[in-house]
Amino acid sequence: MTLVRTGDAKLIRELNKAIILDIIRKQGPISRAEISKIVQISPTTVASCINALMKDSLVMESGTGVSSGGRKPILVQLNPNDRFLIGVAVNASKITIAAFNLYANVQKKITHSLQNETYSDLSDFLITLLQDFLEDFDQKEDCLGISITFQGIVDADKGVVVYNPKLNMSNVSLKDKMEEALHIATYIDNDTNGSLLAEKGYGHYQQAKNLIYVTIGDGVGASVLVNDAIYRGYLGGAGEFGHTTINFNGPICECGNIGCLENYVSWQTIQSRIEEEMANGKKSTMSMWLKDNEQLTIEKFQQAVLQEDPLALVILDDVAFYLGIGLVNLINLFNPEKIIVGGELANDNPYFIRKLNEFVLKHSLETHTEKFAILPSSFGADSEVIGAASVLLHDLFHSTI
Ligand SMILES: [Zn+2]
């Protein structure tokens, strides 16, 4: 890793600060001299960047290291708790807002259900929710920023939600709206890209350079890491895995096409199937919820799977079959090292992950499945909101992808 030397002076300084901050995060406590050796630039420049980072309360001194002859060096490390950031994960059924420290640890979290609610302008509602959430913090200026993830197509550079049919959003300049109302820097990205950044920055799969993250819950999406960079496509729309066609004789999708994968594996499909099968007299432990007029949720379906409810298992097997077809296509097309399957339907669901592995091993090219595995997300139920926070953290630490 070397520092940036040419270009706009202010930008270079900001980038170099971020690169040094990332080294301190990963290798601290560390001396200024060691950092200078890693980034191959003068100790004076490194020291000046670290002074600026200490002034921003992002870094602090912490004890002394081993002397190599002279004075013992003073070590620096991340100052994780003086500043905070906010991650917001928005999906079709809920909004999760969490405050994080610099190690991406959740400090405070709230969830707001969107079930049975429609908003003509979700951005106004988001602003109100965030204003309430920020009430609990004495020093709002300690907030480094807000990062928000959405399903669908997001232009991360411009901060625009381009296409989200489930929330009825198209070309919403959310970044501008949020910054104008809250006066806090705002970042926006696709939810699955956020989850992939979380895995690369903080998860179990940081070393992998060719990775695919697939989310399955009330939507289906994929984020593709190619040679350590997210493949975003020409207009930022890459990864619309849920809208790849698997059956041209299938149902019409909300995108206008026919037989998209999403219509076979999303939670809405599963929910309708459960209701239909039980209306036709199929026995299931899930009937007790329907009888009590309770909402059938993904969590309750997961519970039924864990209890080996026969109907829940038959339905999940079908979902694994259809998602498996899509995953085989991804494996043969991209030859990834691993595919991480996250999202509410895959979290804490080892049975589902096993079924997917069995299917893809049987149907993918043999050359592509050697040492390959489908694995669960590193963060379980918090993966969505940690993914949201990772969009900002990735920028703050100028991580290598
Ligand atoms: Zn579609």
UniProtKB/TrEMBL annotation:
Keywords: Carbohydrate metabolism, DNA-binding, Xylose metabolism
Span of the signal peptide: none
Pfam families (alphabetical): HTH_24, ROK
Family: Belongs to the ROK (NagC/XylR) family.
Function: Transcriptional repressor of xylose-utilizing enzymes.
The name this protein goes by in its record: Xylose repressor
Species of origin: Lederbergia ruris
Gene symbol of the encoding locus: xylR_2
